[in-house]
């Protein structure tokens, strides 16, 4: 097992654990105001200090992890649930009008970054975590569609697929029973990468006010609130920034480690 996989799993588990624990315990109420204690530096009372309203930063980071993970996880789930079937269908119908429609639709979505999609959605429905999930999820659909289509295309010419055709299995059944299990490893690795990108996207959307709304803590909005006070309270920006860095680094290392672990060719080369 590679060091990247171990370190990535450890960092990712730490963030997930903080998010889970926040459901039942935080050092302080993350929304409680304590004006006399505002802008306190990290100490034994407030481990990460307090913000400009006197709210405990450690509690906000824990609840913010919950927000970031929930948004990114659901958004990646949307991408997988819709993108993978589209990609497998396009691969099974290679060269047909259906393949062309699916791939040109993917190109259309790729032309609009998640931030632009979020702006369009929030202009109609208003800002919020749900709309951020929809925006990031829509952007993930063509990613998984392209990955699954590209991986499936090479499998459709393999002997075991020809044998399945001879056995009388239809296209849909072959895609589910034979193609999908053989591309699952690639989708798992891509899923961890998109999950880390989802964390960044959620932070970016919250930073510009399009993500989770107050009083729900969000790492991106914590950074936005801190930008005018960096000179007098640098911990307000450093702590949520480090939380984002640790989370994204952990997920990227986890994805890299999973790729090495799940790909037999890499394992053989390193043996």
Describe the structure.
The chain has 271 residues and is an all-alpha fold. It has a single domain (3-21, 45-270), classed as MetI-like (MetI-like fold), CATH 1.10.3720. The chain is built from 10 helices and no strands. The termini are close together.
Count the helices. How many? 10
Instruction: Give the class from helix and strand content and strand pairing.
Output: mainly alpha
Mean pLDDT: 89
Report the order of strands and helices. HHHHHHHHHH
**How does CATH name the architecture?**
Orthogonal Bundle
CATH topology: MetI-like fold
Radius of gyration: 22 Å
Give a short overview:
With 271 residues, the protein is mainly alpha-helical. It is 72% helix and 0% strand.
Which properties best describe this structure?
271 residues; mainly alpha; MetI-like fold; 0% strand; elongated
Summarize the SSE layout with pairings.
Elements: H1 3-21, H2 57-92, H3 97-110, H4 114-125, H5 129-155, H6 159-166, H7 171-207, H8 219-226, H9 235-262, H10 264-270
Helix pairs in contact: 1-2, 1-9, 2-3, 2-5, 2-7, 3-5, 4-5, 5-7, 6-7, 7-8, 7-9, 8-9
